Amino acid sequence: VGTGLIGASIGLAARKSGVEQVTGWDPDPDALAMAVERGAIDEAAADLGAAVAAAQLAIVAAPVAAISDQVEATLEVSDSSCTVTDVGSTKGAVCERVTQRERFIGGHPIAGSEARGPERATAELFQGATWFLTPVAETTPERYKLVMGFVSAIGAVPQAMDPDAHDRLVALTSHLPHALANLLLNQVGEARVDGHEPLDAAGGSLRDMTRVAGANPRIWIDIFQHNAHELASALAEYRRRIEELELARAASDAGYLARWIGEASLNRRRLLDDVYPNPCDIHRLKIQVTDQPGIFAGITQTLASEGINIQDIDMHHVSPERGGMLELLVAGQEHADEAARLLGAQGYLVTVSAAFARE
Amino acid sequence: VGTGLIGASIGLAARKSGVEQVTGWDPDPDALAMAVERGAIDEAAADLGAAVAAAQLAIVAAPVAAISDQVEATLEVSDSSCTVTDVGSTKGAVCERVTQRERFIGGHPIAGSEARGPERATAELFQGATWFLTPVAETTPERYKLVMGFVSAIGAVPQAMDPDAHDRLVALTSHLPHALANLLLNQVGEARVDGHEPLDAAGGSLRDMTRVAGANPRIWIDIFQHNAHELASALAEYRRRIEELELARAASDAGYLARWIGEASLNRRRLLDDVYPNPCDIHRLKIQVTDQPGIFAGITQTLASEGINIQDIDMHHVSPERGGMLELLVAGQEHADEAARLLGAQGYLVTVSAAFARE
To answer: Cβ–Cβ of B110/A216 closer than 8 Å?
Structure first.
């Protein structure tokens, strides 16, 4: 129900995983036609009732603002044997409002994409992605197994959670960061300092921190409105923490600052723990590169041919004229130094440093 | 004066650029010996007086907290013909306190590095980097030309600015983002949601936004203390903006949210303007990759051999077992689609989308 990017990707993945019959419907006839053309659905239904008439599982992939109504409509026109789920980014409201509570299980795949529409759909969108499911007291094991089995079958990793806890979690890990990025970028963007525009002097830290700023307003206005309560709590707590920092700063409390930075350093390591089991072993190579085809290939080929594994790669592009700085992470000082030597011999300017601050 | 990472890198760059005689001194004898061993200085002086006795230009590269005293000491023991500059991250205090105002010009190279010490020094550290200079009313053109000429000679791009304006600028573009990253990471790190640790569920946006969190406390405590006034203003303004957002949110003011996100989108484009002259033309390829040597080389070589230029490259590493997601930016939809086709034919799972949100 809804054949946009997410709905059509679910259709493609479902058909690929061997689901017998995938029927789709979308209020927008163009989106529906495109879903057929892309092979995302076996059949385009004439209306919602026809779409879910014979369905064992109905997946509502509407915009957040429309999800609750669409879930209700889907429950009404479908058989009581049909289980209904959704893909909205917030779960509290839809799970609270739903009437036939035993037939609905909320869902939320973490499969962000800047793309829109069925023309960009792909069966691989959910490969390895966390897919939150929010069963409630009335949920039966059979229906939960059905949704969980489907989510697993299309490559995602189901994770069960209470609907309100889900909203608190994504408020912290996704909605708060988005809001803070917008706030920061607009503050720097509006500022004028002595005739200079600070935005023009911004370095890598500002660019990293505002990567998600200005994201699709159609999606984000809905999210901010629908997770209002949890986002408000997170923002208020953030504001409280700024005040605490301001007080410590005003009192020149260096001990506070040291503990505060130390805590951030530990949290950063926790964040990267799954990614780099031994972060102290990781070294960063910074390589100045020009903006021309084949540069990356040459560099990565050089390292691969010596058996040096690149753990991570990140390009800080400056301009077409000046090229930029390529950062590679490599495990082991010897590998890092060897890589620097090999690339230095090819004329590259390379620096090596430990990638993560030590205690 | 001070042969740590920055001082020794200046020495290496100066010698490389043809400066006749580079003399160094450091209160730490090990750092001084290492600077000699690295070839960063022609001669290690026995004390500060000996170091600057015959100097035309003295560069003070001490930690921020010690810079003001070290600048004074250097001015006292050097000849009146000697011009003195520094490399501290804040400029207001040192320029205000300095006594022989016509002989001192503040400086601040934007050459961040996680590395420390002369053993990691490199002559290329300042290549293409902005190097702020903060002349004051008493500064003579001759002395300014000397410092500017030196900075240019070692590869940096000098930019003149009022000392207080400099501090306001870096408060916005660097110190505020650092503080906000620490605040965000500690808030998410401390939170517990229904038995879950939100940090463990964090996605790419949180990782990007906290990249600078927990950075070297020795440097950052000093910076937060020395740019206290400007950082306090920036934090208070940020807090005010959160409150404004909270009010708009509480009033369900969707128009405010739309304007706010739209403004962020425009600012994001301004930020990337120099980097991508035609951002709407840039497409993002997301490629699932495993964690093994040669993967990057194979992919980049494939694209290079077809003349497809990679504008930007970014690896989102998940774990050694699961590999991760490689993101490439490519100019032009045709190039992006061709790249996806080529890599798809090699068995990679690839998605393509416009890299930057359109209006």
So the answer is: no
Q: pLDDT at position A243, please?
A: 96
Specify the higher pLDDT residue, A123 or A202.
A123
Helix or strand (DSSP H, E) at A131: strand A130-134
Longest dimension (CA), chain B: 71
- Across the interface, of A198, A310, A318, the residue whose CB is closest to B172 is A198
Range picked from A70-84, A188-202, A274-288 for highest mean pLDDT:
A70-84
Alpha helices by DSSP H, chain B: 5-16, 29-37, 48-52, 64-77, 92-97, 141-153, 163-170, 176-190, 204-209, 217-226, 228-250, 254-273, 295-305, 333-345
Tokens of B302: 């494939």
Phi, psi (degrees; rounded to nearest 5) at B106: -65, 150
C-alpha R_g of chain B:
25
Burial readout A302-317 (b: 16 or more C-beta within 10 A, e: otherwise): bbbeeebbbbbbbbbb
Only one residue has tokens 């893909």, namely A87
Q: What is the pLDDT averaged over residues B247-261? A: 93
Which residues between 170 and 209 in chain A have a beta carbon less than 8 angstroms from any beta carbon of chain B? 172-174, 176-189, 191, 193-194, 196, 198-209
Type and span of the H or E element at B199: none
Nearest to A267 among B186, B284, B301 (CB): B186
Contacts of B65 (CB under 8 A, 6+ apart): B222, B225, B226
What residues of chain A, 18 to 77, have a C-beta less than 8 Å from chain B? none
Largest pairwise CA distance in chain A: 71
Rounded Cα distance, A359 and A33, in Å? 58
DSSP per-residue letters across B270-289: HHHHTT-SSGGGEEEEEEEE
> pTM of this prediction?
0.79
Burial class (CB in 10 A: 0-12, 13-18, 19+), B359: exposed
Is A344 at the interface with chain B, CB within 8 A? no
For chain A, give the percent of residues with pLDDT over 90: 55
The pairing of beta strand A57-60 with beta strand A157-160: unpaired
pLDDT at res. A113:
60
- Picking from A38, A89, A169 by the largest number of B CB atoms within 10 A of its own CB, the best residue to mutate is A169
Separation of alpha carbons B115 and B129, rounded Å:
17
Residues of chain A neighbouring B294 (CB-CB closer than 8 A):
304
Nearest CA-CA distance, residue A290 and chain B, Å: 10
